[in-house]
Design a protein that fits this description.
It comes from Alkalihalobacterium chitinilyticum. Keywords: ATP-binding, Helicase, Hydrolase, Nucleotide-binding. This is Helicase. This protein is of the alpha+beta class. It has four helices and nine strands, in the order E-H-E-H-E-E-H-H-E-E-E-E-E. Helix 1 packs parallel to helix 4 (94-101). The model has no long low-confidence stretch (mean pLDDT 93).
């Protein structure tokens, strides 16, 4: 297991933007995408922006270990190291758009969910946090469970340590 960019990773190019928030939500409903309470709270918050213009982004999925954290790390450490390695945080709207494009995500077969841990098979979107409040969702993660696609929100305080095996999606920087 190497450190980015000399590691196993998954890259995707996705189309983002071009829909209003209501159109984006309707499209997710059309694909039977489920949301938890945190996901809905984040999605419908006025501070969650969506772009009227369609644009293309290249993303990279890797785990916390591939950022140089064999014992895990906090969100701040993960995001700082990713930036140091040349990756960007994603716009928050990447969560719903990636969920719509990644319909064949493998099913996670985890048993009892662990509180204070990312679920097995989930992929967290690395995005700027829009509210400092520890009770407000910090971002989205994707999960497929029992054949159902989810766009879920999560809460984590600044002390939360992510597992070295937790997966994150970052964006490649736009070329000038």
């Amino acid at each position: 297991m190497g450190i980015y960019p000399d590691c196993r990773m998954i890259t995707r190019t996705i189309e983002v933007g071009g829909l209003t928030k209501s159109q984006l939500y309707a499209k997710m409903q059309q694909y039977s995408i489920l949301m938890n309470e945190y996901g809905e709270r984040l999605f419908f918050d006025d501070r969650f922006p969506t772009s009227n213009t369609k644009y293309s982004l290249k993303t990279v999925e890797l785990n916390v270990r591939n950022l140089g954290f064999p014992d895990g790390a906090t969100t701040d450490h993960i995001f700082k190291k990713a930036r140091d390695l040349g990756l960007d945080l994603c716009p928050l709207e990447v969560g719903p758009y990636l969920r719509l494009e990644y319909l064949d995500q493998p099913d996670s077969h985890s048993g009892i969910p662990s509180q204070h841990q990312a679920p097995t098979g989930s992929i967290t979107i690395a995005a700027e946090v829009i509210a400092a409040d520890d009770e407000f969702p910090k971002g989205f993660y994707l999960r497929r469970m029992n054949g159902e696609l989810w766009l879920r929100g999560y809460v984590a305080d600044h002390l939360h340590v992510w597992s070295p095996d937790d997966h994150f999606i970052f964006c490649h920087p736009k070329k000038p």
